[in-house]
Write a structure and sequence with these properties.
Layout: H1 3-13, E1 17-19, E2 25-26, E3 32-33, E4 35-37, H2 46-63, E5 69-73, H3 78-88, E6 92-95, E7 108-109, E8 117-125, H4 129-140, E9 144-153, H5 157-165, E10 170-175, H6 176-185, H7 194-202
Parallel strand pairs: 5-6, 5-8, 8-9, 9-10
Antiparallel strand pairs: 1-4, 2-3, 6-7
Length: 212
Amino acid sequence: METSRQIAKDLLSIKAVFFRPQEPFTWASGIKSPVYCDNRLTLTAPEVRTHVEEGLAEIIRTYYPEAEVLMGTSTAGIAHAAITGHIMDLPMGYVRSGAKDHGRQNQIEGRLEPGQKVVVVEDLISTGGSVLEVVEVLRNAGAQVLGVASIFTYGMKKGLDRMAAANVENHSLTDFDEIAKVAAEEGYIPESDIEKLIAFRNNPSDESWIAK
């Protein structure tokens, strides 16, 4: 079974990704969403966690073979960077959302030398804003950011455009389309809901999908 489908099945089975198009969730931005995603739940499901971390390691070996350091996003990417770093025998650290206001006032935690080749480990990508902030901090510190390895991406146009504009490559274990397809096949949602889900993915700010 290909990795994308396996991870999709895994995330659905532990409700890390949960579809509810009939009763949309409301994001902090106010956007109504038919999907809830919490990949932190993978950490408490050992078999799924193994699939995820081995999958991330394989992404890094395949697409970023020159990686010297893994850097997790704060906070969701930290554990995944640590476990994947352990599997690959690579050093890891993480990037805070802002510099500490005490001690050495670090924003990057862990040793990072200028010029080192870094892969950012992220749990999910929607509009790309948070992971691009991390990339910018690392680049400003002199790192050579090879790209991002993530568990799940929505594949939203805004996110894809922003990543491309910043010249940041991302490889995800699975994506929104794959999970929607598997959810229908496995009976989590009726096949008729896929149209709603894809309409949301294509334009999250347009809530007309709710009435479809």
